[in-house]
TrEMBL record:
PROSITE patterns: IG_LIKE
Listed GO biological process terms: adaptive immune response
InterPro entries referenced in this protein's UniProt entry, alphabetically: Ig-like_dom (IPR007110), Ig-like_dom_sf (IPR036179), Ig-like_fold (IPR013783), Ig_sub (IPR003599), Ig_V-set (IPR013106), TCR_variable_region (IPR051287)
Keyword Signal among UniProt keywords: yes
Protein name: Ig-like domain-containing protein
Matches recorded under SMART domains: IG, IGv
A Pfam family per the record: V-set
Ranges of residues in domain Ig-like: 25-118
GO cellular component, one term: T cell receptor complex
Origin: domain of life: Eukaryota
Record keywords, A-Z: Adaptive immunity, Immunity, Immunoglobulin domain, Receptor, Signal, T cell receptor
Length: 133
């Protein structure tokens, strides 16, 4: 259920590439009202041992959110569709505190340049609450 403040979370994914593997988010930006369910998705190609989701909140280092074989919770679910070479992070009861830059990652680690966008937290009347680049 959305709160009366009507805040929207904007989540950003990174696009990581190497010469052998490709890891691409399905969408660069995902939004949700508070209380909604957010699904972040990445497609991959190449050899994959393990899959991961990380997030990085403003002013902090990236932190592991969930690995493929992590225990599922009511709030967080890891979904792997091997046939389509996609994996998803489902966040239930989304809150402003879930707003962050989210990274989809695989092992062996993909190295090289990464592309990122920006994220804003918007209020109900479209004021920018935070602008983070």
């Amino acid at each position: 259920m959305a709160s009366d403040s009507g805040l929207i979370s904007v989540l950003v994914l990174l696009d990581l590439r190497s010469s052998e593997d490709l890891l691409t988010p399905s969408k660069d930006v995902v939004t949700s009202l508070e209380g909604g369910t957010v699904t972040l998705s990445c497609k991959y190609s190449g050899y994959v041992q393990n899959l991961f989701w990380y997030h990085q909140k403003s002013g902090s280092h990236p932190q592991l959110v969930m690995a493929e074989h992590s225990e599922q919770t009511e709030k967080l679910k890891f979904i792997h569709d091997k046939e389509k070479q996609q994996f998803h992070l489902e966040i239930s009861s989304a809150a402003v505190s879930d707003s962050a830059v989210y990274y989809c990652a695989l092992q062996p680690t993909v190295t090289g340049n990464s592309k990122t966008l920006y994220k804003n937290l918007w209020s109900k009347d479209n004021r920018i609450l935070h602008n983070i680049h």
